[in-house]
Each structure stands twice: as structure tokens, then as C-alpha cells.
Amino acid sequence: MAELTTIARPYAKAAFMFAKEQNALAEWEQMLGLAAAVAQEATMRAYLDQPELDSETQAKAIGDVCGDELNESARNFIAQLADNKRLALLPTIAMLFHELAAEDQRTIDVELIAPFELEDAETDKLVTALKTRLGRNVQVSTSVDESLIGGVLVRAGDTVIDGSVRGRLNRLAEQLNS
């Protein structure tokens, strides 16, 4: 995984810089996400892996499936990836592009995991607290994990805040066992 990220990073940075110059970060993020989803799909992956296909045919296949959702610049980017035999990196490039765009816009994706569905007021209160603590705009998604018993587990990038009852019980057990 680290090797793929290392190889994909220059492509993601190049796409990011171009998109930023064109003031089209959201459009490029959407196009890269679509192209990555198409390239990752099992049938397309099997088609692209055929050794007799040249890079032009591979790039055209992705462009045809994506249709009008890709502009000419994105099609040229995908052609470059195909020429360099890097189409398999599209999902990683899309992920890195998203991270670069989020960093540029000072936003962070946060996942709130609770043992039950959170009410809007509770979510808003957590988002406000996280904005203050993280110093960024927060884009939140929520999920339910009934095994947490109570409280909330927060995942924001590499940061994990475990405010769940299960987490507290585990920490208490560790303290009692040490």
C-alpha cells in the first residue's frame, strides 16, 4: 500500500495543482472519483488487464464509460496514466487528491460512531466542539455500532477519540490488570 501511495502521490499532486489553477477542485475531485470507481469495477479491471490492449484503448474505455462526466483535461490525465501503465492507481490518486483538497480548504472528514442514531442537535453540538478542537471545518458522517453500549467514538483522520462506554470499560480493565 505504501508503495502505491508513493507512486500515486506525484500524479495526485499534479492533478491537484492543475485543478487549483483552473479553480475546479470540486469538479476534479468528482471526475477522479468517478474514473477511480470505473477503473476499480471488476469487469472493467478484467478488461483493462488484457495484455493485448494498448494504452490508447484503455484510456478510451474509461473515457467511454464515464461519458460526458469527464472533461478534456481529465481525459488527457487518464491517457497519461494509461501511457505510464498507472491506471490501477486511479483509486489511490483520487484518495490523495481528496486529502490535498481537504487540506487546502481546511476541512476534515469525521466519522461519529454511536450505539444508536444521533439526533441532529447532538450531532451539531459534537461538530461545533470538533471544529474548535481540530481548528478546521468538519464534514461529518454518522454510523451505528450497538456494541459501544453508550457514548461516541470519533474518527478524524489519524485521530481517534474514544468516548464510548466500551472504551472506558476496556481502559478500566487494563488499569486493574496492571
TrEMBL record:
- Short name of any one Pfam family annotated for the protein: OSCP
- Where in the cell does this protein reside? Cell membrane; Membrane
What InterPro entries is this protein classified in? ATP_synth_OSCP/delta_N_sf, ATPase_OSCP/d_CS, ATPase_OSCP/dsu
The keyword Magnesium appears for this protein? no
Keywords linked to the UniProt accession: ATP synthesis, Cell membrane, CF(1), Hydrogen ion transport, Ion transport, Membrane, Transport
> How the protein sits in the membrane?
Peripheral membrane protein
Quick one: where is this thing mainly located?
A: membrane
Question: Has UniProt tagged this entry with the keyword Lipid biosynthesis?
Answer: no
UniProt lists the family membership as follows: Belongs to the ATPase delta chain family.
The UniProt function text for this chain reads: This protein is part of the stalk that links CF(0) to CF(1). It either transmits conformational changes from CF(0) to CF(1) or is implicated in proton conduction.
What protein does this entry describe? ATP synthase subunit delta
The scientific name of the source species is Alloalcanivorax venustensis ISO4
